Amino acid sequence: MASPRIVITIVMAFVSLCFIFESHASTSSSSSRSEGFNVEVSAIGSQKVDLSVYYDSLCPYCSTFIVKNLVQVFDKGLIKIVNLRLIPWGNAYINKTNNVIVCQKGPDECKLNIVEACVINIWPDVNKHYAVIYCFEFLAIEGRQESWQSCFSSLGLLKKPILDCYNSGNGTLLEQKYAIEALHLYPPHSFLPWVVVNKQPIGKDYQNFVSYVCRAYTGNAVPAACKVH
């Protein structure tokens, strides 16, 4: 199982490559337009595969999937063809009598679900919020989820925006939106993690999600990750 430091290195390396690529595209745009460079980039973006993961923060199967399996999204160029969405709402529900969120593993899971919703909202860049959530879930696997705030310092990120989001109630509102989204899943989720590729759930074969992503991709820029599937 990869350590938080390893995945942080992977993600940061990817961000650096993206920066180099974007800088090259910016400086070369005037000479590349005649070659269809901008059109090609747009086409790749439009052909990306939607990968959605519905989960609970303290669900053991979810934590293991996020840390051990989902990290493959950042291997061998797969992220270039994937729109990854993490939805921290699985078996939770809203008590209609008092409008309070109830989670399968109790208040601690509800709190971390809300914190992760805040992380996704505050840092919409998937490279950044995945790194934070990876760190949270790594701690959860080790039974140290109460130390989740340590992830911010290890990643060099400020925790104040996340704490403000949680304490203000904005995180709860985000979770309520996720609740509505999860309620409209068809078919409804029957276990967690519930992994959906281009709106199609892949059921108990979720650990093999890369194969489904690669089969769903219709573009020509096939990443190395797909050449072995």
TrEMBL record:
<keyword id="KW-0325">Glycoprotein</keyword>
<dbReference type="Pfam" id="PF03227">
    <property type="entry name" value="GILT"/>
</dbReference>
<comment type="similarity">
    <text>Belongs to the GILT family.</text>
</comment>
<dbReference type="GO" id="GO:0016671">
    <property type="term" value="F:oxidoreductase activity, acting on a sulfur group of donors, disulfide as acceptor"/>
</dbReference>
<dbReference type="InterPro" id="IPR004911">
    <property type="entry name" value="Interferon-induced_GILT"/>
</dbReference>
<keyword id="KW-0732">Signal</keyword>
<protein>
    <submittedName>
        <fullName>Gamma-interferon-inducible lysosomal thiol reductase-like</fullName>
    </submittedName>
</protein>
<feature type="signal peptide">
    <location>
        <begin position="1"/>
        <end position="25"/>
    </location>
</feature>
